Predict the 3D structure of the following.
Amino acid sequence: MPDSLHLIRLAQSSPERALELPGGGLSVLHLSTGQDGGEAACWYVCLEGSLILDLPHGDFVQLKPGESYQVPAGQARRLTPVRGATVLMIGQ
């Protein structure tokens, strides 16, 4: 049986840097400060904490644990944690 991955601990082991997961198209990220999210299409799934996705034109989305949001390709965003956040990113 394959070993399981504890995504939150894995992300916290290398904060502020996205870690790619086996199988492709998945990564985890633990943030304590804001960073650019690029413009690639991506689903963001909040695993722990709270994350604000700052979108163009003053729009934003706040994610709490268990919530997700899809940002389409070509749409810039900034990832801003609220007292730390761990996020699963799909498709980036």
About this structure: Residues 7-12 form the longest helix (6 residues). The CA atoms of residues 13 and 31 lie 11 Å apart. Helices lie at 7-12.
